[in-house]
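WARN no homologs supplied; continuing
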Amino acid sequence: MNSRWSTRAARVRAGLSCARRFTVALVNKPSLLALWLLAVPLAASDADRPAAVRVVGANGAGCIAGVVALPTDGVGFQEIRIGHSTFWGHPRTIASLELLAREAHAAGLPDLYMNDVAARHGGPIPGHAGHEIGLEADVWLDVTPKPALPPAMRDDLEPPSVVRPDGRGVDPIIWRPAHATLLRLAAGLPDVERIFVNPAIKRQLCETAAGDRGWLRLIRPWYGHAAHFHIRFRCPADQPECVEAAAVPPGDGCDATLQWWFDQLDHPAPPARPHPPAPLPPACRAIMAAPE
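OK structure emitted
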């Protein structure tokens, strides 16, 4: 055996001897053992490790694992109605909301009020037909200056509608150019699939947007949404079980299809009967049963 290997073997023997002496010392001195156990971090158990992100189903019938929570507040935003809302989402969704708030803040807008994203495991949440897979979020259309409030004082906030009572246009007392700025910033976020607003808001944008109007294609008219807008993000590329919505039609949407919404105001349909939530995909059973 050459000298190099002899030296290595000697080092191994010395290390083993040291380890045996240390083990004996721990056994004979319980106090030393206790200190050592406190000093050495324990390996994380499976329950402690964050779940891998998994998106199953569609926005109206699905679930999600591996969510993260939107902070209670951050640069340019505050959560509101915290006691009866839910703020879990896909990590990309949460990052995009924080990015929107920072961009709005940099543009001179006041804090944004953030509201529902998704439940801890996705699935149905009261008052919504979507928000089930962590890829949608509500942002309130309140662009008035606002102080930083403690969470308890934000629980019952109800920002006002920006739409006239007759539904045919925006309220000129409330509507500001800052509303258009906010919606343009939201439409420019990465991976936005569409944004729902009240038809009157869409009409206002169609009549006033100047320059590049390509972002208007993503602003879609829908029932309600007079005090907040609803962002929907595309399915992440690494989530094959996520069901993408039908593609947004081409064009800016400032055409006869927009006028249809106002024609309905003259002939309102009878109230729709409430219907139960759509059944979740079978793959959601394990996700929905996971501990909180």
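Residues 14-41 form one domain.
OK
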